[in-house]
Amino acid sequence: MSASTPCSQSVSWCFRCSRTRCPCNRLSSSALGGRTERGRSTPTYARLASWGHTRAAAAPRRAATRRTLPSWAGSASACVDPAVAKGLSGVAIALLAWATPGLAQSNSDLFTRAHTLERQGDWQGALSLWASAPDSAIGTGRSDPRIGPAFIATAIENDARDRLEEASALYLWSFSAPDPEADREHVTLEARRITPLLTLRDSARWQPLLEGDTPTLSMRIARYWLEHDPTPETVLNERLVEHWQRIVEARKRYQYNRSSVYETDDRGIIFVKYGPPGTRNHGFLGSNEMELKIRVADPIAREVIRRMDPHPQFDLWKYAGLNAEEYTFYLFGNVWGTGPFELVEGPLDLISSSARNLSSASKSPGGVRVQYYHELFYYRDLAILGGRFGRRFDELATLWDGYTMRRNAYGAGAGQAPTAPTLQTYSYRFAEEDRYAPEGVPSIEVRSEYEGAARAVEMVVQPVRVLDPSDQPMIVVQALSAPRLRLGDRAGAGYVSPLRDTEHTLILRNREMEEAGRMTQLAPARVGGVSVFRLRHPSQPVHLTVYAKAIGSPVMDADTMTLAGQGHAYIDAPLVADASVFEVSDLAVGTPVDAGALEHALPFPLLPSARIWTGDALRVYLELYHLTADAGGTARYDLRFRLLPLDDVGEVKSSPPPVTLGIQLESFDERAQRHFDIGLAGLEIGLYRLEVDATDLVSGASRSRATEIEIIG
Predict the structure, then answer these.
(1) Strands (DSSP E) found in 449-510
(2) Helix (H/G/I), strand (E/B), else coil: 83
(3) What parts of the chain have a pLDDT lower than 70?
(4) Distance CA 704, CA 694 (A)
(5) What is the pLDDT of residue 596?
(6) Residues near 212 by beta carbon (within 8 Å), at least 6 away in sequence
(7) pTM of the full predicted structure?
(8) Fewest 10 Å CB contacts: which of 53, 233, 246, 481?
(9) How far apart are the first and last CA of the chain?
(10) Is 381:375 a contact under the CB 8 Å cutoff?
């Protein structure tokens, strides 16, 4: 770590799927969704990949001090041309004047009456009645979390496309103010419809919400869909509509049972996450007469094998594009041959218990368990889609061909079947691969035309809580955008300017996710596609969305992507403005920025980013407020840095050891602004949590701040 002066001084059961044996690791790091427990043992991988894995007194300061103004405290014109900034004062006023949340209804009879109409075939009447719920709720202070999902599902079922904007708005209203007790079940149900879409890290963060209070969980549901709205400038939430279109379709198609949270069998979970498979093979597994005669000469033995084969129903799905290197397969079928129809690890799960039993060996012609005959036959049926099923069938067929009538290369004396230890070795290896090293594990949580690479602009949004020179709590929001076509372009370690000008719009919402205002700034390419928003921080948490749109002529004819790049943040309560209380800003992180137009556009001496290339330096900026001076007029403080490696669920790894550093500094002012450069060479690629403990050495007061970064390479 190098040091310098700041500004003028720089310092260089599975909770996810609700069943005891889950195949969550084959659903990428995502959740399966709710379902009923089956009482089956939990393998190690399921515990590791499961959703929710078990997972100062202040001293007086000197009255007479001078203040050094940080660069972000300048006027807006220091960052953008005033001519291109719009709505700043309006939003600030809106933030300061937030009123209580809109009142909502508690009359559950309205939902019931509309539901009755829908069941009687009057779906238009049901939609109209549900749509009246917000007005009917005025004066009750309650919303109904059943209405939004019911409205959007009914509109989609009846192809009422003209009601989808209304459905998007009504869905958010439904979760604005539910009854904490009466509506707990309905709010939890909707949250569980979201959990299959989450990453492992997000799943771990949702677990305490599911166990916590209803209003917080309800707001998190609304926040999730606001943050996944591909067009935040419009009422229609296309991603929410797509999600419910898949649910409605899955309910029509996949009804062997209703064990999932979508009221479908397990196929509905995969369908909602990834859409329809590219290729599908389905039917009944088992031996046919010709295959039996080839493998088993004795007709009595053939009858024994038939009797132990329940011919389980199966459905095999094959997806391309979920994994960059190989196809992804999902196998569904009747567990143990006649059990519930669900997602299984492999064909072994579909073989009957009688065929698995060791006693079945005494009844087979080769003196081996009947299970091994069934495995051969089942793999033959599944091999049509290739992948591991095709390769395994080839292995087994080659092995068996040496002992049966298909080739009988070793002659009659070789026996009627491979030896039991040999077949057990094959079976065990296949089962271990299916459980612990499945092929084609998805690298994405959801496949959607509204997420991922569909966005035309990549956004970096970094809000930082600060205190202005008059100790007013503020939020400084840095937003940086670049067309996605240039994301991989790096001129050494330098910054690559966007190819097109962009326009950034900031939407602010209060704690209840109600919009408080919005503002727009141009982010021209000549200043690096950067915009800076400075907001007064009201005395409550706030949520913000910044989205970018490329403006001007397309860079090339192939530039047809239209979805806005976005960034989101939920910001906690403001910093403490009391001048007697030691306080520290949030951490601003990024990479060093060269002098020039871009440097003057930034509020802090760094290019904001939470993803740092391993060859770059990580720059960390922070401000300290209300430092206490000693008798000689000098304030002294200590900063302790820790860079902690994180696992997939966001917990600290036991190895490698964290990077730590401590430094003591002095200031002749009650405030200090510092930035530090941390070299990342030698660190593993992955997620890290940066923690900084700041201590006023005179007063003894301390504050801690943390943020997460990703080292890429």
Answers:
(1) 457-467, 473-483, 502-509
(2) helix
(3) 1-108, 405-415, 452-457, 482-499, 553-564, 595-599
(4) 6
(5) 65
(6) none
(7) 0.83
(8) 233
(9) 20
(10) no
How many whole angstroms separate alpha carbon 58 and alpha carbon 565? 43
Residues 6+ apart with CB under 8 A from 594: 494, 495
Q: What are the structural domain ranges in the chain?
A: 2-13+56-98+451-712, 108-253, 283-436
Contact 242, 449 (CB under 8 A): yes
The Cα 475–Cα 603 span in angstroms is 11
SS3 204: helix
Task: Give DSSP secondary structure letters for 335-394.
Answer: GGGTS-EEEESSGGGGS-HHHHSGGGGGGSTTSS-HHHHHHHHHHHHHGGG-HHHHHHHH
Cα distances from 189 to residues 48, 199, 214, 262, 321, in angstroms, run 24, 19, 12, 9, 30
Chain segment 282-331, per-residue pLDDT in tens: 999 998 888 888 898 889 999 999 999 999 999 999 999 999 999 999 99
Q: Are 629 and 698 in contact (CB under 8 A)?
A: yes
Contact yes or no for 80/532 (Cβ under 8 A): yes
Compute the C-alpha angle 316/246/175, nearest 5°: 135
How far does Cα 114 stand from its chain's mean position? 34
- The Cα diameter of the chain in Å comes to 104
Q: In the block, which residue shows the tokens 């602009």?
A: 457
- C-alpha distances (whole Å) from 133 to each of 128, 129, 159, 171 are 9, 7, 22, 11
What is the rounded CA–CA span in Å between residue 65 and residue 174? Answer: 52
Region class of 28: left (phi > 0), else alpha (psi between -120 and 50), else beta: left
pLDDT digits (tens, 9 = 90+) for 497-521: 446 788 999 999 998 899 999 999 9
Q: Give 669's Cβ-side CA count (13 Å radius).
A: 15
Token reading at 63 = 């009255």
Q: What is the 3-state secondary structure (H, E, C) of 604-662?
A: CCCEECCEEECCCEEEEEEEEECCCECCCCCEEEEEEEEEEEECCCCCECCCCCCEEEE
Residue 693 and residue 642: Cα distance in Å, rounded? 9
Alpha-carbon distances, residue 439 vs 302, 425, 588, 649, 699 (angstroms): 34, 20, 40, 21, 58
3-state helix, strand, coil in the chain (%, to 5): 35, 25, 45
Q: Which residue has the tokens 């779906």?
A: 123
Q: Is the peptide bond before 656 cis (omega within 30 degrees of 0)?
A: yes
Q: Sign of dihedral through CA atoms 236, 238, 240, 244? A: positive
C-alpha dist (Å) from residue 557 to 110, 286, 549, 560: 52, 53, 17, 8
d(CA 485, CA 499): 9
